[in-house]
């Protein structure tokens, strides 16, 4: 007679286990479905952004001849750039009031809030500052003078992105000829500069990741039309951005060979 209650309890336990298993299975299915929906939304978002970029690039290619006339106009203040770099301890070491070289760069004495330790050497791949645009002027000799960067033309408001993780060491319009300009520090000696912007999205002391929106393209400073003047420097010396930038549709928008290098002392 005692076997019956035991059998009943066993049947009840089995039923409970099946119910729990069924709920777990249902929860797993719901989790999988929700995860799939989130993933699909992400894919659609990326695909949509890619499609919009391709559409803008197609438009710029159709306007290529006009965009190629949008370049720097007149001289930029090299002294102003070097002053910013030297104050950050990049390139020439700034002197103290007593005339002796400073052993600790100012940015190491007072690191920007939220910044990470500046790496000794940048390790990684740079990205182009624009996703869509036309290279309107190359690095190198231009009209008998040295053009220390690359001009990339596009519509006013085109997003300008950080080429790599960096600290913002300058963001403003106090550098003659550059208009609204941002200077990023990527390691102890490498910097990138983005000039002629219509609007700045960062401030000095910010730390940004690669691909972060830092400005909107514009036509400020000495400029013949909307474009970003993009420089990369190692210490004081500007280098050809094409030497270290990856291939892209922007690179293909000109007949320029990516391996041609011009030096500041040419």
What does this structure look like?
Strands 1, 4, 6, 7, 8, 10, 12 and 13 form an eight-stranded antiparallel β-sheet that branches. Strands 5-11-9 form a three-stranded antiparallel β-sheet, with no helix packed on it. A hairpin with a 7-residue loop joins strand 6 and strand 7. It is α+β, with helices and mostly antiparallel strands and 266 residues long. It has one domain: Glucose Permease (Domain IIA) (Distorted Sandwich). The N and C termini lie far apart (106 Å). It is built from six helices and 13 strands. The C terminus is likely disordered. The protein is globular, with a radius of gyration of 27 Å. The longest helix has 60 residues.
Task: Tag the structure with descriptive keywords.
266 residues; alpha+beta; Glucose Permease (Domain IIA); 8-stranded antiparallel sheet; 3-stranded antiparallel sheet; 6 helices; globular
Range of helix content: 25-40%
> What's the average pLDDT?
79
- The H-level CATH homologous superfamily, spelled out, is Glucose Permease (Domain IIA)
CATH class category name: Mainly Beta
Number of contiguous helices: 6
Strand-residue proportion: 15-25%
Shape: globular
Rg: 27 Å
- Do you know the CATH topology? Glucose Permease (Domain IIA)
Structural class: alpha+beta
The total tally of domains equals 1
Note poorly predicted spans.
94-115, 255-266
Q: Give the oligomer, counting copies of the same chain as homo and different chains as hetero.
A: single chain
Between the first and last Cα atoms, what is the distance in angstroms?
106 Å
Biggest sheet overview? 8 strands, antiparallel
Secondary-structure element pattern, one letter each: HHHHEEEEEEEEEEEEEHH
DSSP summary, beta strand count: 13
CATH architecture: Distorted Sandwich
């Amino acid at each position: 007679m005692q076997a019956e209650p035991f059998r009943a309890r066993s049947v009840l336990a089995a039923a409970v286990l099946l119910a729990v298993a069924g709920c777990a299975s249902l929860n797993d299915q719901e989790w999988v479905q929700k995860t799939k929906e989130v993933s699909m939304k992400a894919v659609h978002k990326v695909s949509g952004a890619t499609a919009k970029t391709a559409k803008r690039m197609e438009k710029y290619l159709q306007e290529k001849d006009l965009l190629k006339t949008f370049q720097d106009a007149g001289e930029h203040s090299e002294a102003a750039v070097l002053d910013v770099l030297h104050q950050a301890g990049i390139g020439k070491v700034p002197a103290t009031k007593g005339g002796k070289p400073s052993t600790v760069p100012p940015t190491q004495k007072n690191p920007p809030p939220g910044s990470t330790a500046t790496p000794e050497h940048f390790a990684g791949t740079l990205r182009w500052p624009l996703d869509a645009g036309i290279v309107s002027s190359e690095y190198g000799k231009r009209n008998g003078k040295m053009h220390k960067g690359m001009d990339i033309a596009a519509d006013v408001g085109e997003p300008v992105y950080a080429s790599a993780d960096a600290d913002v060491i300058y963001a403003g319009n106090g550098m003659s000829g550059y208009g609204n300009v941002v200077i990023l520090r990527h390691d102890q000696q490498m910097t990138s500069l983005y000039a002629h912007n219509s609007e700045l999205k960062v401030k000095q002391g910010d730390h940004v990741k690669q691909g972060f929106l830092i400005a909107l393209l514009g036509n400020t400073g000495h400029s013949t039309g909307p474009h970003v003047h993009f420089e990369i420097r190692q210490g004081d010396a500007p280098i050809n951005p094409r030497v270290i930038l990856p291939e892209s549709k922007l690179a293909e928008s000109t007949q320029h060979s990516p391996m041609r290098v011009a030096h500041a002392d040419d």
